[in-house]
Amino acid sequence: xxxxxxxxxxxxxxxxxxxxxxxxxxxxxxxxxxxxxxxxxxxxxxxxxxxxxxxxxxxxxxxxxxxxxxxxxxxxxxxxxxxxxxxxxxxxxxxxxxxxxxxxxxxxxxxxxxxxxxxxxxxxxxxxxxxxxxxxxxxxxxxxxxxxxxxxxxxxxxxxxxxxxxxxxxxxxxxxxxxxxxxxxxxxxxxxxxxxxxxxxxxxxxxxxxxxxxxxxxxxxxxxxxxxxxxxxxxxxxxxxxxxxxxxxxxxxxxxxxxxxxxxxxxxxxxxxxxxxxxxxxxxxxxxxxxxxxxxxxxxxxxxxxxxxxxxxxxxxxxxxxxxxxxxxxxxxxxxxxxxxxxxxxxxxxxxxxxxxxxxxxxxxxxxxxxxxxxxxxxxxxxxxxxxxxxxxxxxxxxxxxxxxxxxxxxxxxxxxxxxxxxxxxxxxxxxxxxxxxxxxxxxxxxxxxxxxxxxxxxxxxxxxxxxxxxxxxxxxxxxxxxxxxxxxxxxxxxxx
Length: 497
Ligand SMILES: Cc1cc2nc3c(=O)[nH]c(=O)nc-3n(C[C@H](O)[C@H](O)[C@H](O)COP(=O)(O)OP(=O)(O)OC[C@H]3O[C@@H](n4cnc5c(N)ncnc54)[C@H](O)[C@@H]3O)c2cc1C
Known about the structure:
The chain has helices at residues 5-8, 19-30, 68-76, 82-85, 111-121, 125-147, 162-165, 168-172, 175-182, 186-193, 212-219, 230-242, 284-289, 300-304, 337-344, 390-408, 424-431, 476-494; strands at 11-15, 34-38, 50-53, 56-59, 88-90, 95-98, 104-107, 223-225, 246-248, 253-259, 262-268, 271-274, 277-280, 311-319, 329-332, 356-359, 374-382, 416-422, 463-465. Helix 6 crosses helix 11 (212-219). It is of the alpha/beta class. It contains 18 helices and 19 strands. A hairpin with a 5-residue loop joins strand 6 and strand 7 (104-107). Helix content is 35%, strand content 19%. The protein binds flavin-adenine dinucleotide. Flavin-adenine dinucleotide (FAD) is lined by residues 15-21, 38-41, 46-48, 61-64, 252-253, 281-282, 286, 312, 314, 379, 431-432, 438-440, 467-468, 474-476, 479.
């Protein structure tokens, strides 16, 4: 006998409205489940929310649109293309790396252009880059196109196949040493080590296999949706609604109710809301706190001992004039990267002389700032759980503004007409984030695939997790894949043949 899900109409509740929750909601809605999203904040989108002030538009979190194939694959599953949903532009230059001594390196929008830039800096490096990117593409095809969607992180065997076995050396060596062996110049090394920062750990602690991020960067390019990253959030919300998903904002889940070791419902503002299946896309560590202690899978010690992706000190700034010599994405690598990384991971403290990232979407799409103005988003990576106060934020604000002014040879401090800061306190208050982390658990060798927190609870039936603390890991494309993996698991568990 075959019972379809359409006859059952099981009730699924999803906690949170980040990318992983939205992705899971779309897939489960399409599969015929009765899906509702409960979000604690007023706005949907999680870390990818957006706000507008004084005519300036600011994406609050993600700004690097990489791996367009993952977005496309998601939309294709709903018979759509990203171009049906939003306008998007490939950036050229993709980004600019700013070094000390006034020098910089612009990364073009094609491998040919990038090879030429490399060759100008280090003779012979162009040829080496082509060889390196061939391996990187091979890893991308294996990891992202082939394996990622088939790896719910249940067992080590998901990782083992003839292709991965032939690459075992890339799992036990790290990306920093691999790059440093091939390239001598400091600028080129920085350019090639930068992409793995998205994975949340130091390049010296990230397996060399993750060099597929270099193909994502140089091979697939950096893109920008016309109205910002929030175009993607809006499109996913629309697809979810088309598939019957209901959305509730301002609805913090205070408790998860379990009966007979099985999910029974959630408590929102003292109200019990029952369900058959619960997925939490909220930070995993927080979700477990919503359960009675006996139902938690991981201890406080477990979470404290993880390698967390950094937190960030962020500034959203509206400027009443145009900036001269900068691009859409600018990485200020004008100080010592190793020292800063040490102050994030090994010896956590406020960094003495941090690297930082400056994004100006109005450089590409004018309408994201008023005429003649510019919107600046500044991100300083910092360790989690530091003492976060106004005085410290101001100190770093002055520091980065001075470094920007000195780089562009233009005063901007007195032209600031809008300013908002965001740091550890807000990451905790807004997202219930462990230690105020910005983007989850790092992808180190011991926190990869089946070694990450699981998609389903071993202690409570019908309880599932999605998002950047579980598989595959941090970043928007992995969060979208995470929603797909968890919904595949549920569909498999629930549909009886
Ligand atoms: C500053 C910053 C910059 C980034 N830059 C990039 C980038 O350039 N490119 C990229 O690909 N990725 C980037 N990322 C990472 C990316 O944004 C995240 O990995 C991704 O958005 C995480 O999605 P998620 O579904 O795991 O969860 P989240 O977006 O964290 O969503 C979780 C949701 O759960 C809600 N929630 C928490 N507790 C409760 C509760 N008790 N009840 C109800 N709701 C609750 C939260 O409010 C939130 O909406 C960045 C992140 C940050 C913070």
